[in-house]
Every structure is written in C-alpha cells, then in structure tokens.
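Figure caption, in words: inputs first, then the predicted bound structure.
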Amino acid sequence: MKPVVELKNLSKTIGSKKIIDSLNLSLYPGQITGFLGPNGAGKTTTIRMMVGLMKQTGGDVIIEGISLRDNFEEGLSKVGVIVENPEMYKFMSGYKNLVHFARMHKGVTKERIDEVIRQVGMQNRIHEKVGTYSLGMRQRLGLAQALLHRPKFLILDEPTNGLDPAGIREFRQYLRQIAETEGVSVFVSSHMLSEIELMCDRIAVIQNGKLIDIREMSETKESYYYIEATPLEKVKELLVNEGLAVEVFKNGFLVNAEQQQIPGIIRSFIAEGLEVFAVQPHKKTLEDEFLEMTGGGQIAESYAK
Ligand SMILES: Nc1ncnc2c1ncn2[C@@H]1O[C@H](COP(=O)(O)OP(=O)(O)OP(=O)(O)O)[C@@H](O)[C@H]1O
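Bound structure (adenosine-5'-triphosphate present):
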C-alpha cells in the first residue's frame, strides 16, 4: 500500500536544542494512527510542521507524493485539520458555517456539503444555530468542515477533549467510518490512552523528539498472569526460580507466563504450603505498555492537562 503521508528524517532544532530528531513515519489510507508521547516529547512540534505552522530545520513531509519543502501550498491543500474546539460562528447555523468554510476551497459543491453532513450524522440539527449545539456536535461539525475539500489526510489534535463518554464514542464511530469509506489516513494525537486504544489501528510513540515505537494495535500482546499469594517473599522466590519475569502489581505479582506453565506454578505453591488467593490472566493495557516504553512517571501529568 502506498503511504498518504511520509515523514522523512523530519527534524527541528531551536537554538542548540534538537526538539525533533530525524523522524521517519509513513501513514496509510484508511488507517487511524495514534500519536503518543509524554509531555514535551515533541508531538505538537511535529504536528505544527505537518500542517505548515512551523518550518522544519531538516528533512521533509511528503503528502501524496508532494514535498512540503518544495511545494508547500499544493501539499497542504491535501490536509484536513481539526484542533481542540474548532472555531465556528455561533450565531450562524451549522449549515451556513459549512457554506462559509466551503468558499475557502475550490470546487466544494452543495452535494459535497450535504455528504459531509451525513457522514457526521448532523442532518437533523444542521439548520440550527451552532450556539445551541453540544460540544460533541460542534466537534462533529468541525470534522465535517475538515472533510469538505476531500483531504486524503486528516490530523486531529486532542479531538475528544472535553467530550462525555457518549460523545467520545459517537465521534470515534463516525471517524472510523470516514477513514474506511473515504480512504482517509487519520493521525490523532491524544493523551487519553484508553481512547487511543479503541480508536486507532496503529500507534506511534515519540519521546525526546525520537520515534521510540510504532506498532499495530492488533499485534498480539504477551500473556500475563496476576498472582496473589502469601507469603510474598516466598512467592517471588518460587516464580523467579521458574525463570519468570516478575513485577509487583496490586497485592501480588504480574508474571509473564504461558498458560501451560500455570498448573505447575500452582502445584509448587501448594507443595510449599503457600496461601493462594488468585491466579488470573491479565491483559496489559496501552497505558501499561506506554508507561513501560517511556519510563513512566509523566502520565499523571498528562491526564491532568
Ligand atoms: N519555541 C520553542 N523554543 C524552545 N523550546 C521549545 C519551543 N517550542 C517547543 N519547545 C520544546 O520542545 C519540546 C517539545 O515540545 P512539544 O510542545 O512539541 O511537546 P508535546 O509532545 O506536544 O508536549 P505536550 O504533551 O505537553 O503538549 C519541549 O521540550 C518544549 O519545551
């Protein structure tokens, strides 16, 4: 599959500080890629370079084969952007807002306006004033606006910030449908890891300006078990002696073990007279993995943002 967007050794140095260090990343049609990283990792800087709000000091962004370095305007004409809380005219209807934004692009027809309204499920309320819309509806109108000129690449920065759970779910469902039906490649930055886990096909993780991981969400995760038994010291000793990787978790341990190993582990616990309270499979969440990848610590700050 040909990528819609390619970052090629994209770099940004400010003063003597390397903020973005040779990022290479390809984004594909119909796929939703999450962009994650601790505070200060370089997400905003990367996105600003991808949408032309900041100039790179090295490398390039290629959008549908067009280099932003050589052909800035043409490249950017293929991008749709949604920021947190898109600006709309509150005293005008949703429809009039779309007509207004449609004039900024060449060749957006009335049919296209109607089509994007359907794509975000706004048919019933589109002729009411934006001031009467919920945040979720304003966000969907922002999505409709970003799609007017049929971009092949959509960038969303913290798109679900402030939405309630129902609003988040709706937004996610519409976005998924749009990615699939229009073949749009979507790039989403968010601090909400549980949200990214549900919304994205792939994640790219950045730290200190470098890409540290890129993976498919469907990639099978390793198998973990939560084991709660006492005395803890003895439990740990037995698990380590089995050659298992052990992490302290809640009131017990998390071990990276295969299912076939579990009966043997339980037998050894019983033989040693340990009290066993729980042995259960544990699925690591994206949050667990993210904290492991980035060394943890910063996520609480991210959530507080
Ligand atoms: N104009 C600037 N001058 C100097 N340093 C800057 C400038 N802009 C950003 N930085 C630094 O670049 C690094 C990356 O910042 P950036 O805002 O891209 O991170 P981020 O991943 O978006 O963080 P957050 O999650 O907090 O929004 C930070 O260390 C920041 O302090």
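The chain has eleven helices and 14 strands.
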